[in-house]
Amino acid sequence: MRKSLPILALACAAAFTLAACNKAEQPQEQAAAEAAPVVLAKPTAQQPVKPLKPDIVVKAEEAAAAAEAAAPADAPADGTTKQMDPAVAEAKAAYDTAFAQYEEQNKAYSSEWKKYLVSVVTANMQGVKSNRPYMYFVPGGDDDGAQLDRQNQLDNVGNVVARGVLPGNMMAFGGPDSAITAQLVVDAFKDVQAGSFKDVVVLFIGAPADFETVKQALATSGADARFVEAK
Asked: I want to staple 123 with a disulfide (CB 3.0 to 4.6 A). Which of 37, 45, 171, 193 is the partner?
């Protein structure tokens, strides 16, 4: 019985030490979890569709522009205000209302996506020395507005690629349509100089299959291609 007492005391001491260690580790683990960047969930809202201007309004505006262009430059103003056809006025008012709603919805939609992309980039900055990575939101959609926005973004990215990015920095790309986002990266890097992006991280946020396309496009540049699945 006396021999078992030291063993029992040792077991109790070990259990106490283990419990104390666990208690000490818990705050550290909790602090680490709290310090880790929070990645937001991918937005699920449908992308707003730009309304089409009614033909009756388009034709009326074209006719008015043609009449103004045909008028002599020195023609005196008649001082009268031409009344718009009631049907045209009604169609134009409805379109203007729909377009204003679209702009508001599209602004909110883009804002949610940009917040999501920022959260993903912030959580994947390993090895990036700069605290100001290049982040590009690539809008989806096939309407004229979306295509114009993508072209402007492509021009912007193309200029950055042509100038070059300092080693240790990051370029990140993401958007609601993974294939469209991948194509923008392909187009932007098509004329990149070999090895000019060595030690630069290019982060693609999208679908795995599209990342393979991006990797091939970046191969010549020497960039460190990274991937995060959008979800």
From this structure: 37
